[in-house]
Amino acid sequence: MQVFIKKDYEEMSRKAAEIVAGEMRKKKDHFVLGLATGSTPLGLYKELIRMHRDEGLDFSKVTTFNLDEYCGLAPDHPQSYHYFMDENLFNHINIDKKNVHVPDGMAKDLEAHCQEYEKMIRDAGGIDLQVLGIGGDGHIAFNEPGSSLGSRTRVKTLTEETIEDNARFFKNIDEVPKYAITMGVGSVMEAKICLLLANGAKKAEVLAKAVEGPITAEITASMMQMHPRAIIVVDEEAGAKLKRKDYYRHVEKMVDLLKK
Question: Total structural domains in the chain?
Fold first, then answer.
């Protein structure tokens, strides 16, 4: 696991974009990118759009798979994750929309759709880099506390905390979907690289538990400790409670020296 602690959200987002773009450029023929929604990756997506516009970052051979989607929301619903991705990334880059995959929250047979989603990822060659956020209770995707650490793509009942967290995006809490399709922890762990982002003081305690605490199903993000290529990029506030933050900064400096 490699941990980068950046000064603020903007610097964190630039670092994350550099990592994503660097991996894309290494694999020019075909790149499979796993994506997350929420406020945390917005800065990353803005920087990727800028890199596309100003530096020619090419998305024409990129295939994407999103982590999750609310059950019962159509792709054009303003609070669906498909709509979120269109507005905040896909509509601003040269990606072929047929290569964009977001779980279908309106699927008639949700279980069959989940199995098909896993097959599509396998058929694409697996995810090269998966972008992740971390929830206030330590979850990744919608793998709420207590989720199996070997879980696959499935329908998940959302916790009251997650519903309350998401209520700010809806007119009232009664409109917030209670279920979501989500890639499982086991599915996420098959990505070749996992890039987890966190910002703000509210994430400091749970991030420290995920990065430096025991591996537990109560904090599904703690499985990043088991991933062979997990990269954690956070701002100063989110990294404030990391006990080994001085060491993480030292490692970054030493790696930079090796590149010179």
Answer: 1
Q: How far is CA 12 from CA 8, 59, 170, 199, 200, in A?
A: 6, 22, 28, 8, 11
Task: For residues 192-210, give the mean pLDDT.
Answer: 98
Question: Which tens digit of pLDDT belongs to each residue from 66-100?
Answer: 999 999 999 999 999 999 999 999 999 999 999 99
First and final C-alpha spacing in the chain = 22
Q: Which domain covers residue 248, as residue numbers?
A: 2-259
Angle of helix 9-26 relative to helix 42-55, nearest 10 degrees, comes to 50
* DSSP structure class, residue 16: H
CA atoms of 6 and 69, how far apart (whole Å): 30
Strand pairing category for 179-182 and 154-157: antiparallel
Q: What CATH number is given to the structural domain containing 113?
A: 3.40.50.1360
Residues designated catalytic: 68, 137, 139, 144
